[in-house]
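Deliverable D2.4 — example input (structure tokens):
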């Protein structure tokens, strides 16, 4: 990859971070009471090329396919919700091991593994056995948001990679697309995140696509997720899209029809007009007064959304990491050493 281009992107990250830092709430060693062993600038001496290499690959992947930004961001989410941010989601199944890739929330759904492979191979050639796959996922998530027009933040690092994975935990812990507000709040609270974190992090759905099978209940029983303000024109357009093919597992729709490849607050504007794609999106404005208030505040103030999203990403990224002598630094993100 072109190192000069990568350095330019790294300078952009550093500039945005300098503007966005909030020292009163974040310090060099912890976010709240979790992840106290994660630190900023872990690779400044051991692998200073790490972040330029990573953002260069992310930029290339997004240039080839804008949807990849959402896919890479989603990998970090699905990793952190299963026993913390330890890159367990990247492990392939073997004859003697069942990983998380075949869990229902992930099967034929998660994408971007090849991008992570390319990044890891590049890093191994420059800094062998130094940068963990879990840290790569956290940095890639930040870069995907930043390169799509969203906020930048300084990523805390020092995670190590797991030696195992849990298909059962992936099945049970990752929020489902048909979840109610109560279920969503419980899913997030189970990993130490608040209701506000849940609504802020749901804003990741301002990018990417979803399969018909994940939102079919929007048109099968529109009142379940639309309430009295259901947008029937939108629901009928979804029904028409999904009825044009017999394969609901491959046909996809934009999560945000207005700015599908841009990280902005349009997701929340869409919810208020009844145009949330997933049932778990639309319920935020029809099932709970508090979540609706948060949605309204983000729809009105994109900078507030950016600030809350950044801080919630830091909290999520600090969930249950393996640090110190725990775990390992994988040479291949798909397999334990």
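Example output (designed residues):
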């Amino acid at each position: 990859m072109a190192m000069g281009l990568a350095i330019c992107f790294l300078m952009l990250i550093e500039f945005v971070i300098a503007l966005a830092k909030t020292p009163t709430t974040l310090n060099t060693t912890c976010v709240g009471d979790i992840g106290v062993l994660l630190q900023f600038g872990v690779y400044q001496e051991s692998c200073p090329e790490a972040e330029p290499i990573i953002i260069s690959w992310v930029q290339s992947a997004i240039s080839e396919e804008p949807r990849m930004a959402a896919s890479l961001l989603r990998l970090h989410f699905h990793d952190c919700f299963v026993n913390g941010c330890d890159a367990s989601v990247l492990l392939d199944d073997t004859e003697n091991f069942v990983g998380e890739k075949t869990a229902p929330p992930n099967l034929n759904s998660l994408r971007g593994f090849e991008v992570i492979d390319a990044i890891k191979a590049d890093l191994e050639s420059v800094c062998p056995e130094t940068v963990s796959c879990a840290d790569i996922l956290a940095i890639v998530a930040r870069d995907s948001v930043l390169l799509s027009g969203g906020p930048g933040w300084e990523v805390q690092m020092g995670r190590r990679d797991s030696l195992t994975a849990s298909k059962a935990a992936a099945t049970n812990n990752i929020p489902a697309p048909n979840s109610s507000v109560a279920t969503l709040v419980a899913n997030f609270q189970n990993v130490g995140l608040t209701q506000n974190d849940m609504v802020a992090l749901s804003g990741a759905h301002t990018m990417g696509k979803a399969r018909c099978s994940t939102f079919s209940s929007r048109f099968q029983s529109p009142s379940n997720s639309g309430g009295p303000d259901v947008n029937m024109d939108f629901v009928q357009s979804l029904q028409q899209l999904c009825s044009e093919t017999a394969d609901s597992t491959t046909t996809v729709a934009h999560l945000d029809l207005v700015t599908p490849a841009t990280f902005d607050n349009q997701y929340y504007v869409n919810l208020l007009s009844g145009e949330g794609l997933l049932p778990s999106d639309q319920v935020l404005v029809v099932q709970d007064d508090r979540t609706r208030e948060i949605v309204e505040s983000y729809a009105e103030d994109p900078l507030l959304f950016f600030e809350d999203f950044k801080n919630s990403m830091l909290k999520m990224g600090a969930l249950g990491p393996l640090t110190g002598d725990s775990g390992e630094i994988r040479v291949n993100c798909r397999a334990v050493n």
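The mean pLDDT is 88.
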